[in-house]
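Worked example 2:
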Amino acid sequence: MKGICVLKNFKMYTFIGVLNTAIHWSVFFAFSSFGFLQAFSNLAAFSIASTFSYYMNSKFNFKKKAKGRTYFLFVVGLGALSLVVGACADKLNINSFVTLIVFSSLSLILGFIYSKYIVFK
């Protein structure tokens, strides 16, 4: 039963993540097109998309009341991942599309684990 619940949470997290990713990528490319560094563009895009993701996951996925403390944990934890990925991409001069694919992939797996077992436990 517990495995089914985790799978259900992961499916919903993935669905919300697809919407989150569309928001993230749109904002990232908008900032990048204005000449901002990838690290800043990724962090700004993450900040906007993560607010959406946090509230959608708290209400519809994990069925928890949105709280300042859990929002802070969510944004800081995944924001750090966003900044690290963006900074590495800047340092290694990686194409921005690759940066987004790497971040989105890491964010899906690590973000779900972090959300399920730390933020919304």
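The mean pLDDT is 91. The chain has four helices and no strands.
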